[in-house]
Structure formats: C-alpha cells, structure tokens
Amino acid sequence: MYGHRAKRFPKLPSHRRDLQIPFPFRTTKAGDDFLLWQSASRHILVFATGYNIRLLAAMQTWVMDGTFKIVPQWYQQLFTIHAIVAGKLVPAVYCLCTGKDIATYGFIFQALIDKAAVLEVDLNPDTIICDFETALIPAIRGYFPNMRVQGCYFYFYQAVHRKVGELGLKTRYRQHEETRRKIRMLLATAFLPVPQVDTVVSLLEAGTTEPITTWMEGWHNQLNRKAAKGHNGFHELLELLIAFPPFKRVKSAMYGHRAKRFPKLPSHRRDLQIPFPFRTTKAGDDFLLWQSASRHILVFATGYNIRLLAAMQTWVMDGTFKIVPQWYQQLFTIHAIVAGKLVPAVYCLCTGKDIATYGFIFQALIDKAAVLEVDLNPDTIICDFETALISAIRGYFPNMRVQGCYFYFYQAVHRKVGELGLKTRYRQHEETRRKIRMLLATAFLPVPHVNTGVSLLEAGHTAPPQPSLSYTKIN
C-alpha cells in the first residue's frame, strides 16, 4: 500500500544536498508561496505563507514545539510555531530540521525576521510557550529579547516522571504514598513564585501552562492521525502540511461557533436593544452610560471611571477601526494616565468622526460627571491630528491644552512621503532621510519656533522633498 502511495510523489535524490523541491510542493493550493527558506548548508526547510507571518506579527502569544514521529528520512524533527488566536492553537510555521541546537533555531528565527521585514511587519510576541529544551530557550532569548519564555507544565511533568523511571523508582512511586507525595510536591514547585523555586528546578522560572499543553498535544495527535504512519516520505509530508487547514479556512467556522454564545442582532440598527448582561460589569456596576437613538452612538463607562477621569490631569483619546462590529465606523476610547500607565476609562461605538459625534460623547460625560458631583477639567488631552476631534475638544474643554501625539505625526509625515512618491528616494539617499528626520524633530521645538524651523529646512532643501515640508507647514 505504501509503495503504491509513494508512486504519486517525485523520487528523492541519493543525497540530501541534491534535494530540489518541485513547484507543487513549494506553494499552497491557493497559489501562495509556502517554502519560505531553504538552507543548503544546514539542511533546514522553513515553510510558511506571508499570511501566516502576518498572523504571528499580530498575535501576542506563540507556542513552539517539535515532533519526531512523522519526520521523513534525512531529518530529525518537524519543528512548528503556532499562534494563539481567539483561544485556539493555529499552526503558522513548519520547519524540517536535521538538528536541535541553538544554531538551527537561530537560522529559523532569522528567516522569519527577514520575511517579516519584507512584509513590513514586526515579530515581537509578549510570550513564547515551549518545552524546557536548553538549546531552544537561549535561541528564543537571543532573537526575541523583549518577550517572556513560559514553560509548559506537561513537559515538566513528563521530565520528572521520566527521571523517576531512570532512577528505578517506578515501583516505589506506585506502592509508597510518601514517595508519591514527595514527587507531587516536586511537581507543585512549578506554581511557586520564581524567587522561591529551588535552584534544581530553576528552569521553571517562567511558570506553567497546562491548557496550552492540551491544545499542543491535540494538534500533534491530529497531525499524526492524518499522517497515518511514522516517518512519512518527504513529499508525502509536504503534501500533508500544505493540505492542513490554514487559519483562513477554519476562521469562519471558529467565529461562527463563538457567535452562538451571543444574542442575535436585529435587522436594523434602530431596533438594537442591549441585553442587561451587556449593560453592566461583572461587579454589577452600570456600564452603558449613554445611548443615542438619533446619532447611533453608544458610550460605555462606569461611575468609577468618570471619577477617575475627573481626578487625572492628562487624558489620551484615540480611535480604532479594525475590531469594530457592523453598523459602526470606529471604537473611540478615552484613557487616563495613572502613575505613568494608560488606563482605559470610556469606550464609544460611533457611526461617524465629525464634530457633532464627539460633541455628543463629551456632553454625555459632562452630564454624568454632574450627577456624580465631579468636574471634568483635564490640563492636557493627547490625541492624533484629527481636526474634528480637536475642534470638539476645544469647544467642550476650553481651558485645557491639546497635545499632538508624536506617533501620529510620524505616521502622517511618512504617509505623505509615500503619497509624494519619495519612498525609494528616502530609502536610497542619506540626505533625504536626514532632512525628513530633521522635519520630524521639529515636533520637539517650542511651538512659536516650529514654523521658523520648517522654513529653515525648506530654504536649504532640494526640490523633491519640498512638498512634504509645505504639507507640514499647512497642517
């Protein structure tokens, strides 16, 4: 049977160094590039689509693991990287490796970082969950220094029980309650605060994660069932990985299943009634502060949050569009800066971005503050450079100072550089880069000197970047 199945695939060369992967095994069924990187010297193959790299860039938690059962000849392990999306484990990167050393993992991570740079995204996860492999953890820390490595309890449990077997203690473990209790206490050290953990188990400093283990083992079992045998043929394994359901394909089913937990929306926005469980917090406080039937605006905030805004001197306002549900244009949020931290206080679902929309929101907050007998008088409001928002802020909070956000200024300038067709020139000419950076630095000048600074840049500038300087003066 296996011989008959093998006839469907190209014959492998005699030596690994001569391996050439045919086109059908380099792309997905949708035509996307699947072979991301191939190392002739290290004999490493990395498979991932551009979509999967973007998915990793968007997710804060990754899971890394290796499997050995289904690996074809010439290779030691199939190393995989998964993203956690909406509580599900989604495979993103597959790597066939001939080793398990720091250099191997370093080559893989560098390939991913290089691809991310081409796609103009950053790979900066908050947490990477993996087993306690000593080569993998240093490689992770070397290439992703700002993240947290979190150990997997399942692998710690396995390692301890493997050691019990190696020491000839299995019979004693089964028959003696005291031995069992001691081993269980050893396993429980994984849940202690790091400074209190014995040096013998210091590798557990990052903590444990039992649910992730269940997902990871479930994924491996699913892959093994699809493979139907150990040590598959090379092309056979590639065909299996290409056919493995990508996130794009399982996303709709996953979201559909999740949607069943929530009440069905009416046909028209005007008929929207928010059920009681979504009008209050888990502590029972009112969360829906105001609802406009005419403007279709929803403002969510607790009384505590309004008091927090009243007590703080600096607010930050911003809007996001990516996660907004149907019927709405943006989720507008107001944050307080508390002890140097950004604390969200007000959430607003809006259908517009005009002065009237922001005016309705601010009036709702002022009315609620009056009921609570507090005043909303911040010294400073930080926001982007949206003219409607700034005008509304100045109308409702006339005594405060509007402060632009450097991030948005940086974005706006670079967006204008792109619109003016100067991206290539910016990348290739040091003088152009220097002038644009000097332009960005005008944000740190005293306000009365900004126009003078821009004019001085404009006077000494060559023709191509000049429109971007004019744009800055106008805005």
From TrEMBL:
Domain spans labelled MULE transposase: 62-158, 315-411
Signal peptide range in chain numbering: none
Transmembrane annotation, as ranges: none
One matching Pfam family: MULE
Record-given protein name: MULE transposase domain-containing protein
